[in-house]
Amino acid sequence: MFIQHMMGMLYHPKAEWGALRKERYSMHHIFLAQISFLAAIPALALFIGTTQIGWSITGNEYVKLDVASAAPAAIAFYFAMWLAVGFIAYSIHWMERTYGGNVSFDECLVLTTFTATPLFLSGLAALYPLLWLNVTIGLAALCYSVYLLYVGVPIIMQIPEDRAFFFSSSVLTVGLCVLVGLLATTVVLWSTLIPLSYVSG
Fold first, then answer.
1. Residues of the chain above pLDDT 70, percent
2. I need a surface site. Which of 76, 122, 150, 193 has the fewest CB within 10 A?
3. What is the pLDDT of residues 177-199, one digit of tens each?
């Protein structure tokens, strides 16, 4: 069912949001059956790509990570994505009454998870960690996630479209701040608690 919803988000997102609204997923189901799977995609792809192929800016010279240092970094990144999704869902739940919404945290988590699905799936590009390719795919996924957000908010949150636009913009701001915070935290962890060890390509 989850795979069907993901495919539906690609072809007919408005109808798929309506279907998700009716199904009433629980928080435990979303975290255990969906986020646990989605968050593993970029974490595993980064681990495989950086240890087996290596990073490259131009496509000529590759720098690999040592498996012993890449493994804890991938695990930390995996759980950081859990926290990021949970925090964004909590922020949506906290802001909703300001814009006329009155839904459960579970529904806010559904909105967050399926909005972020293109970003999670774009993590597959890290299997071949060429910088310009990863940035291009990541930006395309981000644009589609923004589109899903603006389509999904009025349906999931059950608020008028004029308020939904401003609500979506607020959620987008929170999401971008979380993304920047996640990147900044990653850099700090890489230079302190989880130092990376490089090997020749």
1. 89
2. 193
3. 998 888 777 767 666 666 666 66
In which band, very low, low, confident or very high, does the pLDDT at 98 lie, cut at 50, 70 and 90? confident
SS (H, E, C) the chain: CHHHHHHHHHHCHHHHHHHHHHHCCCHHHHHHHHHHHHCHHHHHHHHHHHHHHCEECCCCCCEEECHHHHHHHHHHHHHHHHHHHHHHHHHHHHHHHHHCCCCCHHHHHHHHHHHHHHHHHHHHHHHCCEHHHHHHHHHHHHHHHHHHHHHHHHHHCCCCHHHHHHHHHHHHHHHHHHHHHHHHHHHHHHHCCCCCCEEEC
User: Is there a contact between 118 and 145 (Cβ–Cβ < 8 Å)?
Assistant: yes
Rounded to an integer, what is the distance from CA 175 to the centroid of its chain?
9
- Would the pLDDT of 3 be above 90? no
Kindly state the tokens that stand for 15.
């109808």
